[in-house]
Amino acid sequence: MRKKMFLLAVLLLLALAMITTGCASPRADQPEPTPTVPTAAKEIILATTTSTQDSGLLDTLIPMFEEKTGYIVKTIAVGSGAALALGERGEADVLLVHAPAREKLLLESGHAITRDLIMFNDFVIVGSAEDPAGIRGMAAAAEAFAAISAKESLFVSRGDNSGTHIKEMVIWKQANIEPAGNWYIETGSGMGDTLNIATEKQGYTITDRGTFLSRKEQLSLDILVEGEATLLNIYHVMQVNPEIFTKVNAAGSQAFTDFMLSPEAQAVISDFGVDRFGQPLFFPAAGKNVEELGK
User: Fold this and answer.
1) Does domain 122-231 correspond to CATH entry 1.10.10.2840?
2) Dist. CA 114–CA 92, nearest whole Å
């Protein structure tokens, strides 16, 4: 009899413990637990040019954005041409690129729904201090390219359909030259790798100023040609169309765009590089017209 009473007491205690620890069914007046947001909804894919990555700018901006919004950014740093192609296939949510003519085509096709001016810097032509083609101080990039071709001095091209490569080919066209031969090599790589190869081979190349300055300590190259209006380098952020590509994270894309246009992000862009190089690597441009840039 005592054993039965003991077992009943144990069972009663267990039942009470289950109720007090929440194992029993919730009461009707208790609030439902907050559902967990799926991880996919918190992630956005950013396809961007290598210059924003190589310069170190995104290493500052993306953690700020993630902390502010809770989104997780997956960055794909490729040439602008490849980044735009990812947007055209719906394989990215948002783009940060610097190939204006190609950007307009993506917008006109409907594969992107917005195109907002974010920042700018400029392209520069760099080469060894010896400057075998004698281009130092030339006012026109096309004139410099013509001199390099005439001397068949080594020129290192990205050759990757990036914004920088597109700008390079525009300049060759202005010079009425189709570059080819042993003096002209294509790396098929990003700006950082191309600058390293130009240093190793002591050749010429064209680069955005931001990437060049961020790597200058590791390079033995000088800026030889700069300042021409045609060398302006403009960056836009673009949202991929969620109506065409249903997997696009529209909310995340909008949040990233809003952040890049915000005074907070624009202030970071304005100051980025000043402490190390004495000048910013990029200039903020949100709310400006292209015609105002560089003035």
Assistant:
1) no
2) 14
Q: How confident is the model at residue 40 (pLDDT cuts 50, 70, 90)?
A: low
With CA atoms as reference, report the closest residue to 281 among 269, 293, 263.
269
Return the pLDDT at 20.
44
Strands 205-208, 72-78: pairing is unpaired
Q: Which two tokens stand for residue 182?
A: 């042993």
pLDDT value at residue 294: 61
The arrangement of secondary structure in 42-120+234-288, i.e. its CATH architecture, is: 3-Layer(aba) Sandwich (3.40)
What pLDDT, on a 0 to 100 scale, did the predictor assign at position 93?
98
Q: How far apart are the first and last CA of the chain?
A: 99
- Give CA–CA dist 124/226, Å, rounded: 5
Query: Where in the chain are the domains?
Result: 42-120+234-288, 122-231
DSSP secondary structure string for all residues of 142-172: HHHHHHHHHHT--EEE--SS-HHHHHHHHHH
For tokens 């910013």, the residue is 280
- Whole-structure pTM value: 0.80
